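pinging the channel bc i need a second pair of eyes. not urgent but kinda urgent?? the chain im working w is below, pasted from the shared doc
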Amino acid sequence: MGRYILKRILLIIPTLFLILLTNFVLVQAAPGGPVEQQIAQIEQSKIHAEAPGAAMGGAVMSDNSYRGSRGLSQEMVEAIKAQYGFDKPATERFWLMLKSYSQLDFGESFFKGKPVTELIIEKLPVSISLGLWSTLLIYLIAIPLGIYKAMHNGSGLDKLTALMLAVGHAIPVFVFGVILLVLFAGGIYWQLFPLQGLVSENFDQLSALGKIKDYFWHLALPLAASTVGGFAGLTYLTKFSFMEELSKQYVLTARAKGLTGHQVLYGHVFRNAMLIIIAGIPAAIVGIFFTGNFLIEIIFKLDGLGLLGFEAIVQRDYTVIFGTLFIFTLVGLVLQLISDISYHLIDPRIDFEGR
């Protein structure tokens, strides 16, 4: 197992390199970069002083190939390019980025004026808070429900919950989030929960109990949206894992010895059936933290890493885009390695080295 872990750790380096290279090429090719946006802002400030025809002409491609640069001197355009580091060739910019990342220096945000590391540290508690609570709720609901469905397969309640799970899984997370906002956050029906944010404006003035209530009051709708869309897969994984174990010979032998259903389930089946579920927790965390809650943060205006990444993409804030991408990818690769190690620790028969 030690050789396998070493190989996986060494593979993280080329994987990160290829992911960063691919996204660097794609992002550089996308129009509307930080230089163009800065030029557009300068031109926008002059729009009231220009005739309408001239303002429209400013959006035409000029000799220096930047939209909106008509009316700006070449020296000013070059100064803006130097401000964002675009006075260097793309290959040199990519090399300098890799060199900085090897020292865990992700640069400074183009538009927020803060180091990317500081921004990530500021936003991380919100994402961790939402991710941990949603993960906890998903497991607390999905595992008991999956066990019940396995023990009562084909019953009326099993079929009813199957229908509910299918509907919940089919509705996209962002659609369900919007539905909750319309119904319970000041839409055309009830205003029972806040529209956005994680705490109220007077949060610091509340008592300890008041802060806890306010925190969960704001978290209710985001958690509901992320939980409904996330526990269907885990429920069925639990159900089929327990059904497979219940059909094995040792279960029939245990029942033949006179053991009750409760004794068979929790004395023999539970540990074996939960192996795959427990070992899959790291991979599930990756999906919940970095995929499932991304849109939740945007819809409910939660100031976390998901909203930070979305704003960075809209603003073409390249340093933030690549910094968050690097962090997400690195954490995802490490958690996948932990997931493989968990499989081996829980069931030593699984040999990744032999594979």
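so The CA atoms of residues 312 and 321 lie 6 Å apart. and The first helix runs from residue 2 to 29. — does that match what u expected or am i reading it wrong
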